[in-house]
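FW: tagging you since you asked about this chain on Friday. Here's the raw sequence from the shared folder, copied in full. Didn't touch anything.
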Amino acid sequence: MEMFSNAERARVLVQALPYIKRYTGKIVVIKYGGNAMVNEDLKMQVMEDIVLLHLIGVRVVLVHGGGPEISELMGKLGKVPEFVDGLRVTDKETVDIVQMVLAGKINKTLVNLLEMKGGNAMGISGMDGRLLQAEIKDPRLGYVGEITEVNIEPVLDLLEKGYIPVVSTIGCDREGNAYNINGDTAAARIAGALGAKRFILMTDVRGILRDQHDPDSLIADVSLKETDMLFQEGIISGGMIPKVKCCIDAIRRGVHKVIIMDGRVPHAILMELLTNEGAGTMVYGGDRNDE
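HL: got it, structure written out here
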């Protein structure tokens, strides 16, 4: 027995029409990683969401991480992952591993999945076309990069040719050194350089919670001014601090609105963009209702 009748399916499509019109031709940057990437069923649903958006004319840019896979390969090679302030210490051997995992296995796997679902995707790294130029962030961290410049032309070229750009966050300097760059930070800078209408940051929590122990205490939307107060009150704390700072940076660089959402929720991207319910926490700079 089918769950929905044809009439119900038609009503769903009609209800989505205003949202389709809102985003058709607009750029949406999605930062993807964490638990949503590890779970294969969720991974396929994320790919389906992205391809659907692509086919209705949304210009999607997918920026991905891959921390668990990097740690897994390091373990197989006898290296113990080390972190300082949440950032992976990256010596010369480790940056080679990062490059293999991010620009190789994960990037090409995601491209292949998007193509299998009917999308038209092209994988690049931050080194291609010197998309992400970087320098050493902290000598203690080794080859961990601080972005100095974003050359967004390679991404724009792919968008103009009808591709979904799939970007791994490896940067480089003018001497040819490769750098491991935090995925959230890189995605925020790419979204800012594109002036994206939406920047979606997929995490393993629902969004910003007033009470970290109560998943139902989600803050649905927050302005830049209000984030200052939430920082002071300690509501934004722990691992959410760098994520919200990335949101703030993206908005100040030209992104319209940023969404922090739980990537473990099936089809959360479509819920956010194509329904009136939304998903996660929206961070905005100007008028909440300004589209």
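FW: The chain has a mean pLDDT of 88.
HL: agreed, and The two ends are 40 Å apart (CA to CA).
FW: great, closing this out.
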